[in-house]
Write a structure and sequence with these properties.
122 residues, alpha+beta, 2 domains, two-stranded antiparallel sheet, 2 helices, 4 strands, elongated
Length: 122
């Protein structure tokens, strides 16, 4: 083993009842033969460390508690709706348009120098 860490995963758990096994959601086709990841990583052990573990498995559904819901952690992000006032942009010269494009900290706008039009990059 050397100085490498050892990943202890859910696949390493052994039950006294051999019909009880960890669920494996991983797609074997997604990993090549050199990939050592299998199951959910519980802990990483270094040389000289050991783990004694007593685990209790409980079956449940998301209707009972969110911890059993497969989508318990969901994130979302608002998609901005950006409109350029074309009438106002026509009154500006190239320098103010460049200043407008450069003022965006997230680089949302671009200036087409051939046409002089401000474009949205999203």
């Amino acid at each position: 083993m050397g100085d490498q860490t050892l990943d202890v995963t859910s696949k390493d758990l052994i039950s006294s009842d051999h019909s009880v096994v960890p669920v494996d959601f991983a797609d074997p086709a997604a990993y090549d033969s050199s990939d050592q990841q299998r199951g959910v990583i519980i802990v990483k052990l270094r040389r000289g460390q050991e783990l004694r573990l007593r685990a209790i498995a409980r079956k449940g559904i998301g209707k009972d508690h969110a911890k059993w819901s497969p989508a318990a952690t969901v994130t979302f992000m608002y998609e901005p709706e950006i409109h350029i006032n074309e009438d106002l942009m026509e009154t500006l010269t190239l320098a103010p348009k460049e200043a407008f494009v450069d003022s965006s900290p997230t680089k949302v706008f671009d200036l087409d120098r051939a046409t002089g039009q401000v474009e949205i990059l999203l």
